[in-house]
């Protein structure tokens, strides 16, 4: 990997984790590092209106104009919510960020230490020529087990739509091309006459560019999910009433209290996966 190579960011609410992926010399994306999320607000499901405290779910593209090196939460980048599909659906809200500190009103707070590492990685990718990096935000890791457990949730159809993009990245290690039509996300399709202009209108004729291996994975997951349901896998409800926090930070909160956790957000010691050695030196210093 080079410091200027393109990046992809994935966020998982239920697990309270953020992943940074970076393109390697093979052209595929490899996991650089996984960060614990100190705080996100709301519950599982998309953000629909201003003031609902929901952290967004969906596919976003962050360009250089959405970076904020002077954020009141140290460093930040704006997800760009609402995107074109969300605007068409009437969703409202603004300034939904990935930022430092450990507080959230619809944002993903990584602590100052976490965002201090992430920010220069995405900034240098944009400086290196990537016009915008993709951020994929999911309610949970889209495994058959999680899909089965949440099968009766009112957001299940939306989550199934997100899973198509998730499966493409899992198989190909390439960010999917994201289009919007028919009131949903559409992935890796070439449309006759160009990209759809109205996200709510029926999708025009298109040629799918999704590899057969992706369809095979999706079908295998569907069969596994049905098997889990048939075996009596119990439904589960989230253990929080407003948002979530990675277990590493929850342990610190229980041990030291909220005030102590807030004071430590710039240098909190929590277990995270180590960054690739190829990028450790260029990006781990303070921006």
Automatic annotation (TrEMBL):
Signal peptide range: none
Q: Enumerate the UniProt keywords alphabetically.
A: Cell shape, Cell wall biogenesis/degradation, Peptidoglycan synthesis, Transferase
GO MF entries: carboxypeptidase activity; transferase activity
User: The L,D-TPase catalytic domain covers which part of the protein?
Assistant: 7-138
The record ties this protein, via InterPro entries, to: LD_TPept_cat_dom (IPR005490), Transpep_catalytic_dom (IPR038063)
Record-annotated active site: 99, 107
Q: Name one GO biological process term.
A: peptidoglycan biosynthetic process
Which residues lie within the region annotated Disordered? Answer: 256-287
User: Which pathway does it take part in?
Assistant: Cell wall biogenesis; peptidoglycan biosynthesis
Where are the compositionally biased (Low complexity) regions? 267-276
Q: Name the PROSITE patterns on file.
A: LD_TPASE
Asked if the keyword Nuclease belongs to this entry, the reply reads no
**Is-annotated flag, keyword Transferase?**
yes
UniProt-listed Pfam families: YkuD
PANTHER family per record: L,D-TRANSPEPTIDASE YAFK-RELATED, LD-TRANSPEPTIDASE
The entry's family comment says:
Belongs to the YkuD family.
Q: Supply the name of the protein.
A: Murein L,D-transpeptidase YafK
């Amino acid at each position: 990997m080079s410091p200027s190579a393109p990046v992809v960011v994935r966020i998982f609410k239920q697990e309270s984790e953020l992943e940074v992926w970076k393109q390697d010399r093979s052209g595929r994306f490899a996991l650089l590092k996984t960060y614990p999320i100190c705080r996100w607000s709301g519950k599982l499901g998309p953000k629909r209106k201003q003031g609902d405290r929901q952290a967004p779910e969906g596919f976003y593209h962050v360009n250089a104009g959405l970076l904020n090196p002077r954020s009141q939460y140290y460093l930040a980048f704006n997800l760009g919510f609402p995107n074109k599909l969300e605007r068409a659906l009437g969703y409202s809200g603004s300034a939904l960020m990935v930022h430092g500190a450990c507080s959230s009103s619809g944002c993903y707070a990584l602590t100052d230490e976490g965002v201090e590492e992430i920010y220069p990685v995405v900034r240098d990718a944009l400086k290196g020529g990537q016009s915008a990096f993709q951020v994929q935000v999911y309610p949970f890791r889209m495994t058959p087990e999680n899909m089965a457990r949440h099968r009766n949730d009112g957001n299940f159809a939306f989550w199934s739509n997100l899973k198509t993009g998730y499966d493409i990245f899992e198989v190909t290690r390439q960010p999917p091309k994201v289009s919007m039509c028919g009131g949903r996300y559409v992935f890796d399709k070439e449309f006759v006459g160009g990209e759809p202009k109205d996200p709510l209108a029926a999708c025009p004729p298109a040629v799918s560019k999704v590899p057969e291996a992706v369809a095979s994975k999706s079908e295998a997951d569907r069969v596994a999910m049905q098997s889990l349901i048939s075996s009596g896998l119990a439904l589960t409800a989230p253990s929080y009433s407003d948002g979530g926090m990675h277990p590493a930070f929850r342990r610190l909160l229980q041990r030291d209290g909220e005030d102590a956790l807030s004071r430590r957000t710039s240098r909190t010691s929590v277990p995270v996966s180590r960054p690739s050695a190829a990028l450790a030196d260029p990006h781990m210093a303070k921006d």
